[in-house]
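Slide 14.
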Amino acid sequence: MPLPGNWLLHHSAATRLLLLSLVLMTFCIHRVTANCSRSCYCSESPEGGLAVRCSGLHLPEVPRDLPNDTRHLYLDYNRLTTIPTDAFLGLSLLSELDLSHNDLAQLEPGAFRGLAESLEFLDLSSNRLMALNPLAFEGLRSRANLTHNPWHCDCNLQTAMTLLDLEPASLAGVVCRTSEPEEAGVQGLPFLLAAGADLCVAVKKTTDVAMLVTMFGWFAMVISYLVYYVRHNQEDARRHMEYLKSLPSRQGRSEHSSTLSTVV
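Slide 15: predicted structure.
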């Protein structure tokens, strides 16, 4: 039985539409893959740009060939130990950065340079961070996950936290594993919730003692100089008096002159 002509026409149009969709999909996949880092997987982000996934690839460092239009970057579950200066420079669209579950122990100054205007969320959880370097963040105002790190709470960390522009709620993730001084009573607590804790007291005391020692040293130097100056002047005065005593007196010279006149 012959098929109706309109069914064949409809079937042909549907086939062409399907082929066109496959071509477009292939083109998009090829374009995304061509722009992607060689060691990562890329996909289109719903809000534009790329979502670059480099998770679980045992990477020892941040890839250097990340696309400039990266909006979401996932570097979790790798072997990163440090984030170098300008590691993400040029990623002006980056809004989410996941660095969790690595071996990060250091964030170098300028590590997140160029992300202050775009980054909305930074995940640094489950690493080996013990200290915060304000120079690494350079005005970053994003939310951050700082949990599950072996934070060492001391005066340096207390000072650094006042210099960060991260959302305040982010800093609640700084839970003190160790502290200096140990008797501060902050171990096991979120540092922001350790009311009244001042880890700079010992440093302030040391500074005060150093200032007192310095002032005493200057005072001792001034006293020593004054004593030397007085003794030196006394010695000069004594020598001058001895010199004057060694000279013939005026009365002696007058008597000698009178005797000469009488003889004449």
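Speaker note: The chain has a mean pLDDT of 79.
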